[in-house]
Specification:
By secondary structure, this protein is of the alpha+beta class. The protein has 2 domains: about 15-190, Electron Transport, Fmn-binding Protein, Chain A (Pnp Oxidase, Chain A, Roll), CATH 2.30.110; about 190-219, no CATH class. About 20% of the residues lie in helices and about 35% in strands. The chain is built from 5 helices and 9 strands. It has helices at about 25-30, 70-75, 120-130, 145-150, 210-219, and strands at about 20, 35-40, 45-50, 55, 60-65, 80-90, 100-115, 150-165, 185. Strands 1, 2, 3, 4, 5, 6, 7, 8 and 9 form a 9-stranded antiparallel beta sheet that branches. A hairpin with a 2-residue loop joins strand 4 and strand 5. The longest helix has 15 residues, at about 120-130.
Length: about 220
């Protein structure tokens, strides 16, 4: 599938010229991040919370404690929505109403499933860890069975999705371009600073290659 099918659920109406349903483009937005905003209902109230996630193919993985209110609500509803957004620039226009931001944002809709099998849970947690930092899984101690048993892992199968991308400059009124007002972009990015060792033995250890690689790639 090259594109997600358009429906009332995922069709972008406002700013539809910035919309994309391309699976490759949407996956690129997901893979560039680690935190998504998950929406759910609790006692007839809408709640949205940030959660770390991992993606593999058309699946998203979330994890928490066995008593996690949000994950239990998603399993009960058997469906969910998740949004990932990257802020790329402030767009400073000549008038207040034309100020904007450049961004990449993807919204997913899918069905939920609790993972019970130990190997499935380990694979899902590996996916979440690799989403955070490539190579980190092999640099830590293995999880024991008690930790796995105490962890609730939810698999989301992406059934449909859409994204909006703004990556252009200022769009002012034609008559405003000659005004004596500065306008333009302020590019933004998230960066990594040099790693800081935890107290104890790590202070005497060399920083692992996978940590330094992440720093070099994101500084």
């Amino acid at each position: 599938m090259k594109e997600y099918p358009k429906s009332k659920l995922n069709r972008v109406k406002r700013g539809h010229n910035r919309a994309t349903y391309d699976v490759k483009n949407i996956n690129a937005i997901l893979d560039a991040g680690f935190i998504g905003y998950v929406s759910y209902m609790y006692k007839d109230r809408a709640i949205s919370l940030p959660m770390g996630y991992g993606r593999k193919d058309n699946k998203i993985y979330l994890h928490g404690s066995q008593a996690n209110r949000m994950l239990l609500a998603l399993l009960e509803a058997k469906e969910m929505s998740l949004t990932v957004t990257h802020l790329d620039a402030l767009v400073l226009a000549r008038s207040g109403l034309h100020h904007s931001v450049n961004y990449r944002s993807a919204t997913l809709f899918g069905s939920t499933r609790r993972l019970e099998d130990t190997k499935e849970k380990e694979a899902a947690l590996f996916c979440v860890m690799e989403q955070m930092m490539k190579g980190r899984w092999d640099g830590i101690r293995p999880m024991d069975q008690d930790e796995l048993d105490r962890t609730l892992v939810v698999e989301i199968i992406i059934e449909t999705a859409s994204a909006k991308i703004r990556d252009v400059g200022v769009a002012d009124e034609p008559a405003d371009y000659d005004l004596d007002v500065w306008a333009g972009l302020v590019p933004l990015k998230q960066i990594a600073e040099y790693p800081i060792a935890d107290k104890g033995l790590p202070q005497q250890m060399e920083i692992p290659k996978h940590v330094l690689d992440y720093y070099q790639q994101n500084k």
